[in-house]
């Protein structure tokens, strides 16, 4: 070994030691832009994916050791959505490699931090930054409307653009579905969002697809409500109440025209088509899918103005049918408040509509709003010879009496020390007067032909009939 070689060897060793202290290059381009050094190993094998909500503690310093920020000083975690551009590039890259409990140091070159602009006054232009980060929590992205954890997404590969499919879009996807670890579905399929059930695709996947970008690969987990529910799926061998996990690739899609892109002729034509689809779903007992189609009619036509003659007549007829059928669907799904709201919309279009009054009464009866339900049915029998409504009046009166009897018992227990005091007598007298009123109404109802007993055949016929003629 020469003297020159002897001098070179310690220099190489020093560079390797320096590199170990700075960490490994984890930048996508391998340009040394993000160096990571693990100071404390994390637990488990799970690392965050794009879209996951992560909670961390961090301390940031300049190369000279000057601290410019720290979540620990504020004594609160910093939480952000990974891979969504909410933090500097170096963070999205580094945190994606971490495990729960891990502490690491990252050195970020300017192009992976605040670049030539810096972040005055603490961070100067073209500054290299050093962070110590500790990962505490990974929370999977929840796509469900109610944020009940029913549809969660983990993005394996980010898509190509910001455009996403909408309701009615044509999509090409690859699906691999698993139930209890067993693959039950593995195929390429093309379909229109909103018609997925015809292809044995659960509603949760249709919802997730509307949040995906072209080329995106994601793991979608579904609770039964958003999968195949309590019925399961016999064709796919899915038992009732099963949790499902899908690996989904959105290969391509073509967006459906938005409402503002359609003229009135197109809206009327498409409304008639989706109305028939909705009715078909309803007859098959697929009420959730039916509501999706009826809602399209409302969204397309509700805010149209300046319509005249035949276009106005056709639009109002379609809107009326949509609200009436939505009310019926919501009654079937035991979502009675939404049923009432759609009946109110229907009555704005036709103040004395027989079906709207009956379904509003039905929904309110199911919600235990007996007085309001009775008022709906009474108005109905004043306008139409509706035997089913007379029956429902009798049921309402019976329920009101039961409610009053229950209240009497409560009041009696509330005033035991008063004996026959004026307070107790006044309360009971008020209840007795209401009882007398109910009995008189019952007599009138019987005189008009109502028997005060349920007539299941007539009632079901009235409530299940859809407005398919509009």
Descriptive report:
43% of the residues lie in helices and 19% in strands. The protein has helices at residues 3-22, 71-74, 89-95, 203-209, 264-283, 287-301, 309-332, 336-349, 354-366, 370-383, 387-414, 422-447, 456-464; strands at residues 24-25, 34-40, 53-62, 67-70, 78-81, 103-108, 129-139, 141-142, 151-157, 170-179, 182-192, 217-222, 244-254. With 470 residues, it is of the alpha+beta class. The strands form two sheets. Strands 1, 2, 3, 4, 5, 6 and 7 form a seven-stranded antiparallel β-sheet that branches. The protein has 13 helices and 13 strands. Helix 7 (309-332) packs parallel to helix 9.
Short recap of the structure:
The chain is of the alpha+beta class.
Topology:
Blueprint: H1 3-22, E1 24-25, E2 34-40, E3 53-62, E4 67-70, H2 71-74, E5 78-81, H3 89-95, E6 103-108, E7 129-139, E8 141-142, E9 151-157, E10 170-179, E11 182-192, H4 203-209, E12 217-222, E13 244-254, H5 264-283, H6 287-301, H7 309-332, H8 336-349, H9 354-366, H10 370-383, H11 387-414, H12 422-447, H13 456-464
Antiparallel strand pairs: 1-2, 2-6, 3-4, 3-5, 3-7, 6-7, 8-9, 9-12, 10-11, 10-13, 12-13
Helix pairs in contact: 5-6, 5-7, 6-7, 7-8, 7-9, 8-9, 9-10, 10-11, 11-12
């Amino acid at each position: 070994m020469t003297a020159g070689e002897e001098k070179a060897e310690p220099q190489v060793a020093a560079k390797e030691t320096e590199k170990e202290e700075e960490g490994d290059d984890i930048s996508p381009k391998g340009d040394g832009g993000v160096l990571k050094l693990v100071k404390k190993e994390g637990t488990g094998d799970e690392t965050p994916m794009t879209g996951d909500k992560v909670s961390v503690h961090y301390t940031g310093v300049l190369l000279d050791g000057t601290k410019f920020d720290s979540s620990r000083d504020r004594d609160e975690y910093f939480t952000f959505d990974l891979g969504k551009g909410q933090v500097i590039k170096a963070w999205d890259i580094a945190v994606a490699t971490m495990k729960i409990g891990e502490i690491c140091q990252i050195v970020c070159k300017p192009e992976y931090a605040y670049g030539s602009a810096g972040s005055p006054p603490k961070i100067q232009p073209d500054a290299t930054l050093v962070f110590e980060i500790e990962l505490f929590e990974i929370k999977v992205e929840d796509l469900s409307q109610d944020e009940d954890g029913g549809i969660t997404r983990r993005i394996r590969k980010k898509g190509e653009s910001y455009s996403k499919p909408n309701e009615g879009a044509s999509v090409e996807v690859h699906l691999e579905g698993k139930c209890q670890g067993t693959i039950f579905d593995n195929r390429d399929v093309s379909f229109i969002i909103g018609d997925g059930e015809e292809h044995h695709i659960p509603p949760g996947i249709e919802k997730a697809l509307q949040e995906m970008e072209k080329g995106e690969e994601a793991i979608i987990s579904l609770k039964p409500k958003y999968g195949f529910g309590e019925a399961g799926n016999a064709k796919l061998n899915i038992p009732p109440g099963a949790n499902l996990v899908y690996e989904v690739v959105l290969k391509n899609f073509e967006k459906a025209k938005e409402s503002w892109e359609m003229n009135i002729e197109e809206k009327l034509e498409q409304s008639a088509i989706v109305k028939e689809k909705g009715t078909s779903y309803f007859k098959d007992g697929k009420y959730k899918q039916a509501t999706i189609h009826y809602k399209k009619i409302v969204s397309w036509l509700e805010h149209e103005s300046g319509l005249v003659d035949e276009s106005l007549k056709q639009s109002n007829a379609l809107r009326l049918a949509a609200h009436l059928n939505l009310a019926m669907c919501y009654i079937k799904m035991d979502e009675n408040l939404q049923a009432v709201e759609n009946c109110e919309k229907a009555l704005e279009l036709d103040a004395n509509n027989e079906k709207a009054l009956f379904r509003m009464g039905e929904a309110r009866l199911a919600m235990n709003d007996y007085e309001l339900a009775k008022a709906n049915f009474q108005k109905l029998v004043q306008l139409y010879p509706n035997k089913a409504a007379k029956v429902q009046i009798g049921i309402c009166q019976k329920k009101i009496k039961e409610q009053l009897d229950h209240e009497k018992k409560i009041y009696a227990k509330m005033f035991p020390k008063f004996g026959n005091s004026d307070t107790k007598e006044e309360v009971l007298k008020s209840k007795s007067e209401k009882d007398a009123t109910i009995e008189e109404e019952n007599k009138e109802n019987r005189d008009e032909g109502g028997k005060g007993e349920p007539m299941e055949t007539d009632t079901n016929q009235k409530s299940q009939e859809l407005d398919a003629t509009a």
